[in-house]
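User: Can you help me understand a structure? I only have the sequence.
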Amino acid sequence: MYGSHGLAYLNDKLWFTAQGSKAVGRYDVKEDKLEWSMGTGQNTTHLLYVTPDAEHFYATNIDSGTVSIF
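Assistant: Let's start by predicting it. Here is the structure, written out as tokens:
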């Protein structure tokens, strides 16, 4: 993944966007490994918000003019 930008840290997990890869992901800090990633299919996935319970997150996609809801 390349072009990381938006970051959120919650419960020892680092959530991120990868603008250039049109993707989002979650990194487990304690285990030191990529836990999960998924493409958004949208251009320039930029910033994200993770809900306090980590059940949902939202990512903005600048060039597509959309919001991805997970």
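Now, to help you interpret it: The longest strand covers residues 4-10. The two ends are 19 Å apart (CA to CA). Let me know which part you'd like to focus on.
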